Amino acid sequence: MAPPQTSGLGARQRRLIQAAADGDLQLFKRTASALDAGKGRLREAVEAVKNRGAGALHFAAGRGRLAVCVYMVEELHTDVNASDDKGDTPLAYAIQGGTVDTVQYLLDHDANPDKPIGKGSTPLHLAAEGGNCEILKALLSKGANVDSLSDTGTPLHMAAYCKQDGAMKILLDHGADYNKVFNTVCTPLFMSLTSRSLECVKLLIKAGADVKGVGTVTPLIVAVNNGLTDFYNCLLEAGANPDVRDDSGRLPIELAAYENRRKDVEILLPVTSRVPYVRDWSVDGIIDFVRSMPSVEDDPMYKMKPDDIKFEGNKAYKRKDYLTAVKLYSMAINHSPDDTTLYSNRCLCWLKMGEGVRAFTDAEFCRMQRPDWAKACYLQGAANMLLKDYEKACDAFLDGLKLDPANVEIEKALRDAVDCLKTHHTAK
To answer: Which among 89, 112, 135 is the end of a domain?
Structure first.
């Protein structure tokens, strides 16, 4: 781990933190005694020294200084579950430092393996992210909740997103829910496709993961859109439906043909039901047909500059022509795929059109890109309201209000969500 930042602390306090981080037990004891000044309250003197909420035990654990940890836990009886300003515990520091023996020691001395450590994450999320299999096993042996849910999903979602197939196997072996849906449509399988991890995809399918997806958002369409040719066969063999169309009404084989990916079309052709509008149902026939159709590039609007496309989209939104606005924002996104504002604008259109799943997908992108943006929280909450997930809507609006306490629109939206939640519970 990085050296401790001790600005703002006195000389002796800095020395104590540095001694803990360096594992210099004798210097640590001498400094602790000096801070206590003979009052006989050594534990209180040590625990009072904090740097951004992190105490000496945090830094000792993060560096794997086991001797210092043993002294603090067994002789000073320091709180092993103390949190720093971000919510991280000594156990979290030890996991981030990758020190297996320190993790095991803390767990053996009452460290809570399920204590949230920021945005709802748990130590298991951290271990899955880093792919430290021995630490994962240690946490699970102490009863860590394998399906704990955070703002980024479960530990299995995290392993999938970070391409940690070793960690994924351990989590699956311990009963992790391979079909757990996070944020309406996102499963561990979708995360694995997003991260382009074939090994993770295979592990999930072997465990029994659902390959059908939700509506037009299917794993096969995600794979085709991302050009994941090597992923097709395992998805198809597991039962993925090649006849499900995307939001624009196109089949997976048509998406592949449009990109002139011949090998993809060859794989999809035998399993796709023939459609009457393509006369020559062959690899060449499908590619020729799809590429002869008018494309988005033929649209005069496509030749506009990105800023002009966005401007025209804003004009379409103001005159309540949401379908045209969506088309324009989507074109602008093709030019600037990382522009969060474009996604938020398109999300507003989906909300106006009552398209909850599509709105949520854009809102989720906004929150991932800009987690401290109140508007992204509002959009996520509004999408959840459309999907009648009132509890998650409340959570999102509350997050937004914390970021922007003076936002009247979010405050009203939160009240409405709470009312809907109460009515929903009463109806049950």
So the answer is: 112
Q: Which domain holds residue 107?
A: 1-112
- Report the alpha-carbon distance of residue 245 to residue 3 in Å, rounded: 53
Asked if the structure places residue 418 within a domain, the reply is: yes
**Enclosing H/E stretch for 392:** helix 390-403
**Is 330 a domain residue?**
no
Task: Give the dihedral sign, CA 169/173/176/178.
Answer: positive
Q: CA gyration radius for the chain?
A: 27
CB contact at 8 A, 38 and 16: no
Q: What does the pLDDT look like over 59-104, one tens digit per residue?
A: 999 999 999 999 999 999 999 999 999 999 999 999 999 999 999 9
Interval 238-262 mean pLDDT: 89
Instruction: Show the 3-state SS of 215-278.
Output: CCECHHHHHHHCCCHHHHHHHHHCCCCCCCCCCCCCCHHHHHHHCCCHHHHHHHHHHCCCCCCC
Strands (E), 289-418: none
In a domain, 4, yes or no: yes
Q: What average pLDDT does the segment 219-228 reach? A: 92
Distances (CA, A) of 151 to 29, 104, 144, 365: 40, 26, 18, 13
Q: pTM of the prediction?
A: 0.71
* Predicted confidence (pLDDT) per residue in 135-171, tens digit: 999 999 999 999 999 888 999 999 999 999 999 999 9
Q: What is the CATH number of the domain that holds 364?
A: 1.25.40.10
CB 95 within 8 A of CB 125: no
Task: Decide: 19 and 64 in contact? Cβ < 8 Å.
Answer: no
| Structure confidence by residue, pLDDT tens digits, 97-128 | 999 999 999 999 999 999 998 777 999 999 99
Where among 71, 92, 112 does a domain terminate? 112
Domain count, the chain: 2
